[in-house]
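Hi V.,

Quick status before I head out on leave. The structure for the redesign project is tokenized and pasted below; the design run finished overnight.
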């Protein structure tokens, strides 16, 4: 059996990269380039830098044509696959859809798809980076990395079955949410990737939400408010003693943050 897929990249689509750079710089500590790399067909793409010198993902500037086509500010994750075209065929055969057909980029082959419930994400077969090594954009513990991947979906049972089948994940353990159902944990091997939950009020469509690690949740909450973001769920204690919160960045992309109270 093929190795289970990991999240290997995260991308913020936004109409205001400079505004996003100021916001995430203040809240997370990231550095986002002032100008975009024009390599991918004239698209404005900017790398997100961490304090340790690594990358946390990228920023895709939405242009007028993309916005006219329905693109909106959003965070999207990339899942590793060994054969993008084969994965696209399998996903569409199982009720998923193609948002962007497979294309070759200097960094590898990618496609944007949705799961059968409509949640979008990328799949990617990356070219090996110089020096080798696995992507470290996802970390269970570290600030300035995405630490938790949460899928809110119209059909949790169907979604769990889909990701187990196509990406080799497991689903063990859950937390009851009362009348809303269960918060079901998903794993890649022995690593907790995140969770699958039912759609709640205010979530009109199925979507992935990503929780970015911060050094201090109270400082991050204050920074969200001071830099034009909106808190949609105040910091709440989670198993293990840390805190998670939800927000909308100033450009309109939903995002989560997780970290300790200091």
């Amino acid at each position: 059996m093929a190795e289970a897929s990991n999240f290997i990249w995260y991308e913020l689509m936004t109409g205001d990269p400079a505004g996003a750079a100021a916001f995430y710089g203040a809240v997370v500590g990231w550095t986002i380039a002032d100008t975009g790399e024009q390599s991918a067909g004239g698209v404005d793409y900017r790398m997100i830098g961490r304090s340790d010198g690594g990358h946390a993902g990228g920023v895709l500037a939405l242009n007028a044509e993309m916005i006219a086509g329905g693109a909106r500010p959003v965070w999207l994750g990339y899942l590793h696959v060994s054969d993008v075209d084969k994965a696209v065929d399998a996903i569409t055969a199982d009720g998923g859809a193609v948002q962007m057909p497979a294309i070759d980029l200097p960094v590898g082959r990618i496609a944007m798809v949705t799961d059968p419930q409509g949640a979008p994400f990328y799949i990617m077969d990356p070219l090996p980076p110089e020096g080798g090594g696995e992507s470290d954009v996802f970390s269970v513990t570290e600030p300035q990395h995405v630490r938790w991947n949460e899928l809110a979906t119209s059909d949790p049972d169907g979604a769990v079955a889909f990701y187990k089948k196509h990406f080799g994940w497991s689903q063990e353990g859950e937390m009851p949410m009362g009348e809303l159902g269960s918060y079901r944990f998903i794993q890649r091997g022995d690593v907790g990737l995140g969770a699958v939950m039912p759609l709640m009020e205010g979530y009109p469509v199925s979507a992935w939400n990503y929780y970015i690690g911060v050094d201090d949740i109270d400082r991050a909450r204050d920074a969200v408010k001071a830099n034009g973001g909106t808190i949609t769920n105040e910091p709440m204690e989670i198993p293990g003693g840390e805190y998670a919160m939800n927000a909308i960045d100033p450009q309109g992309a939903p995002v989560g943050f997780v970290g300790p109270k200091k």
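Above is the designed sequence. Residues 156-167 form the longest helix (12 residues).

G. will cover questions while I'm gone.

Best,
W.
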